[in-house]
Design brief:
Layout lengths: L11 E2 L6 H5 L2 H10 L3 E3 L4 E4 L2 H9 L4 E2 L27 H12 L2 H25 L1 E3 H6 L1 H11 L6 H14 L6 H9 L3 H8 L10 H10 L5 H15 L1 H16 L1 H9 L4 H11 L6 E5 L3 E3 L2 E3 L4 E4 L1 H4 L3 H4 L28 H18 E6 L4 E3 L6 E4 L1 E6 L1
Parallel strand pairs: 1-2, 3-9
Antiparallel strand pairs: 2-3, 4-6, 5-13, 6-9, 7-8, 10-13, 11-12
Helix pairs in contact: 5-7, 5-18, 8-9, 8-10, 8-12, 11-12, 13-15, 14-18
The structure holds protoporphyrin IX containing FE.
Protoporphyrin IX containing FE binds next to helix 12, helix 13 and helix 18.
Length: 402
């Protein structure tokens, strides 16, 4: 059921968080939404929206009241058909629990340790390449190249067709977590056929021997999940794990290029790289917003929300909430304790691929930090406009080798 405006007691916002201007720079609007109250009413979309850290965390942790099986976007999948078979992100326990256990057993600390060497080899190669270039586009020549190679190889899909299909698939997939507007429709047009490509390459016989994809299928052999679920889990890796990591690498690179002092710190002590990464997940969260649906009538922070209502959770705003992070929440400070941010979500759906993207980023950026003395911006970065992903289309950068 859609929530009736007459039942909404929260401050009304007529502005559109998904407009070009607000996507280009979402933070002034996020600040106004947070200051207006724990909940605001987005008039254009007819949903309550949440932007404060504590409230977003409360929603994500209460998975039985704020459910995911009706979709993690504004469309209610209990009443409308999903564009594709629902996967782990759009499920509740007990279905969610079995899928989560299977995926968690594959993306395990042991599984990640086994990948480190092959990630390191390609990181060395890529860093050699950009050191030769000195001036390059950190989005296209660096951030995009690394996960496409190492993550694709780890999942075990063929190299051919990866770039053409998976980037468009990710953009289309993440569009479903925001409104079905012209921008989303355009990403859907560009993504035509890519879901079929991904599903065809998720089949057991297409996946490389010993790959993560094959290990998911082994869970089906052991009877832990069904064959349909195995294919959906491999697809989930491909559609959720690539764009997010690419934009995350770009976001750290951009932040460090405009904060050269922070780069000096990571160069002197590359072990600080992981703090630079976490602080950028907080400040520029790659997956900015998604939705939940109420499983019952709920009286929540002054709003009477009927059962079966959609609500928007803006983790990108929560991660800059000064009530939680202090008055300098908008500042990039790699010495801040940024752990506990909501960039990977929270609760039972918290990103299961997190150890994979952390490993990719840690290996690549630590290698770069050791070999590059200084980094600076070489022109205006061009933002990538997407309803739920935050990143850059182009990040011109100059580096000085150590
Ligand atoms: C830096 C990169 C990444 C970011 C920022 C990110 C962000 C997120 C967030 C915010 C969620 C929670 C969504 C919700 O609560 O509805 C999530 C869930 C998920 N992510 Fe990631 N993710 C990243 C990388 C990955 C990778 C590499 C994979 C696959 C290997 C992956 C697979 C998934 C899956 C399958 C879920 C659903 C988990 C569940 O429902 O239990 N993600 N991710």
């Amino acid at each position: 059921m859609a929530l009736d405006l007459s039942t909404a007691t929260a401050p009304v916002f007529t502005e559109d968080p998904y407009s070009d201007d607000n996507l280009r720079d979402p933070y002034p609007l996020f600040a106004r939404m947070r200051d207006a109250g724990p909940a605001v009413w987005l008039e254009r979309y007819g949903v309550p929206a949440f932007t404060r850290f504590d409230v977003c965390k409360e929603i994500l942790e209460d998975y039985s009241t704020f459910i995911s099986s009706a979709g993690a976007g504004p469309k209610n999948l209990h009443h409308e058909k999903s564009w594709r078979a629902q996967g782990i992100m759009e499920s509740d326990p007990p279905i969610h629990t079995t899928m989560r256990q299977a995926m968690g057993s594959v993306i395990s600390p042991r599984g990640m340790r086994a990948l480190r060497n092959q990630f390191q080899q390609f990181a060395d190669e890529l860093v050699d390449r950009i050191l030769d270039m000195r001036e390059f586009d950190a989005a296209k020549d660096f951030a995009e190249v690394f996960p496409l190679r190492v993550f694709g190889d780890a999942v075990g899909i063929p190299r051919e067709g990866r770039a053409e299909n998976l980037l468009a698939l990710g953009a289309m997939n993440f569009s479903t977590f925001g409104p079905d507007d012209e921008r989303a429709k355009e990403y859907f047009r560009m993504g035509q056929g890519t879901n079929d490509w991904a599903m065809a390459n998720c089949a057991r016989e297409k996946l490389a021997e010993g790959s993560l994809g094959q290990q998911i299928w082994d869970c089906a052999d052991k009877g832990e999940i069904s064959s349909d679920q195995a294919a959906l889990l491999v697809r989930a890796m491909l559609s959720a794990g690539l764009d997010t990591t690419i934009f995350s690498i770009g976001n750290v690179m951009r932040l460090l290029s405009v904060h050269p002092g922070e780069w000096s710190k990571v160069h002197v002590n590359p072990r600080l790289t992981k703090f630079a990464i976490d602080e950028s997940f907080r400040l520029e969260s790659p997956f900015q917003s998604f939705y939940r649906t109420t499983s019952r009538d709920v009286d929540f922070h002054g709003m009477q929300i009927p059962a079966d209502s959609k609500l928007a959770v803006f983790v990108g705003a929560a991660n800059r909430d000064p009530r939680h992070w202090g008055e300098d929440a908008d500042r990039y400070d790699i010495e801040r304790q940024a752990g506990g941010h909501l960039g990977f979500g929270m609760g039972i759906h918290q990103c299961v691929g997190q150890p994979m993207s952390r490993l990719e980023m840690d290996v690549l950026l630590t290698t770069l930090a050791a070999r590059v003395k200084a980094i600076e911006s070489a022109g205006d970065a061009v933002p990538y406009l997407h309803n739920t992903l935050r990143g850059w289309e182009s990040i011109p950068i100059k580096i000085v080798p150590a």
